[in-house]
Amino acid sequence: MESTPPPTGPAVAGSLTLTRPCAKCRTQEATLDSRSQPVCRACFVKFISGKAMKQIGILGKEIPTTRTNATRRYVLGLSRGVSSTVLLHLLNENVEFALGKARAAPFDLTVIYVDSSCLYGSKNADHDPLAPFRARFPRFTFRSVSIADALGLLGIDWSALPSVDPTLLPEQRIWSFFSALPSAASRADILRLFTRHVLLASARSLDAQALLLGHSTTALAELTLSETAKGRGFSLPWVINDGGVEYPPAGSGSSTEGEDRGRKILVYHPLRDALRKELSVYMTLTEPPLTPFVAEGAVTALDSAVVSHKDLSIEEVMFRYFAEVEESYPSVVANVARTTGKLVRLLGGEDAERKRGCGMCGVPLDGEGDERWRGELGIRGGDEEEKTRGKLCYGCERSTRG
Ligand SMILES: [Zn+2]
Ligand SMILES: [Zn+2]
Questions:
Q1: 275 CA distance to ligand 2 centroid (A)?
Q2: I need a labelling partner for 55 at 20 to 30 A (CA). Which of 74, 127, 207, 278 fits?
Q3: Name one GO molecular function term (predicted).
Q4: Which residues, listed in sequence order, are joined to residue 264 by a DSSP beta bridge?
């Protein structure tokens, strides 16, 4: 369709005269715009689901089913925002499609919602935010896991973090930990990292081979720039690319034997080729629309990561920036994410995994890499720095201590 010249006059399809024919099928009236082309609803839906199915197919090939491994087990991180809700819908379509062809379901899926409502003081025990999801997607298993679970995870080095009163209940403890962080930007940053930890730990405990995240092209581009701005650019290949991570990371306090031993989990972003605004449109086009499933306010995807609105976090700045860029220059957004995708994991697979990782984000602490960022962004001194030296990367140290 890229090579098809734009129509010069009314096109004729059967006996119908189309005033604005779809640039892809040319038989339907275009009602939407997709990457500067007029398209019909059916072609738009096919375009988005095709992009996701391609990625899900790539992942499936990474995990071949054999006699000893008869089932692929995936975990989906659901934030109840647009992207992860759309991904949930597409994964369901994928399963329905296989079953409709009398084939086995291509994977088992457990959907994990990391509940951070205790940080907002808005905990409502009677309200199950997952109830509508369970009703709509009965084939999948849904679980809500509290962000307070981060307190017990081996992948986080709590000895390197500001200490919290151990006599408090877990949800109070995590609340006071977040309250003591230096800024809204720090809270958003640490909440994102803890959420990732809780998801990876859940995937590991469920013996899942892959963790699926809903990040769109736009979200990955935002993450690229915000992580770079925070001095964690070194971590990008682990955060943006699809691939395996060991959880808990080597040297993170986990023993090398038995229960606690790290296991490789593939982290995939099947919506990496779709723009955020496209997913917002897609959400309205499914039958029935997914719109009511998306958490109130999460349409902007902002507040899910922000505890206080006092100041703008880097994430918010990036969000606003890319909302504008996406509108006029979608290819710029795609290029940011794609260029990062080409970065290699500098320390290389096996070797990197044996090195000690940052106690917060898990990225291997390479003396040179970390020092490079430290040098560019300034050095702090004092006892606090001594306590964390060598345990946290520069970005995580800044986020927890300012
Ligand atoms: Zn069409
Ligand atoms: Zn770190």
A1: 28
A2: 207
A3: tRNA binding
A4: 246
